[in-house]
Amino acid sequence: MTVTSPFSSGGRQAQGLPRLPTPPTGWPIGSYATYQEAQRAVDYLADNQFAVEDVTIVGVDLMLVERVLGRLSWGRVLMTGAISGAWFGLFVGFLLAMFASGAEVTYQPILVGLVSGMLFGLVFAAISYASSRGRRDFASASQLVAGRYDVLCQPRNAEQGRDLLAKLAMRPSGSSS
Fold this sequence. Notes:
16% of the residues are buried. The longest helix is centred in the middle third of the chain and has 26 residues, at 74-99. The protein folds into 2 domains: 27-67 and 147-170, Alpha-Beta Plaits; 73-136. The chain is elongated and about 70 Å long. It is built from 4 helices and 3 strands, in the order βαβααβα. Strands 1-3-2 form a 3-stranded antiparallel β-sheet. The protein is an alpha+beta fold. It has helices spanning 35-47, 74-99, 108-132, 155-170, and strands at residues 27-32, 55-71, 138-153. The protein starts with 26 loop residues before the first strand and ends in a 7-residue tail after the last helix.
């Protein structure tokens, strides 16, 4: 069984999937408030030998939700820039140390990479933050969410899928498949 995220195709083109964005087809057999509930419904169908190849989960009423994580200050911006630059510099330093000529192990390329990375990270973070001129003094994370998630099924199996999901709805939500 291949596990994929709701936004990927698992790294390869699946059988029967369109290459271009295409509106979904099928009849609604269930509607759920959360993606987790819709996923549980499709998992239940799969556990009951249903042809899940005919099923599509569709997020309806899409919203872009931006969650504010905190206030930005010069100290926080510079610290974050230095840390991210240090990681990149450490990586470059290790690569240089691995391919350095000579039999003995030297830590000089690692140290140079670390310090250089921190300096570049500081400079780029400072330039980026200064160029915003206080218009965005907060950090945030964005997420695409739906108001509801509909489970669609091709007409040939929609009635059977609707019947199975009705049985699932009759069970307590805490019980497993």
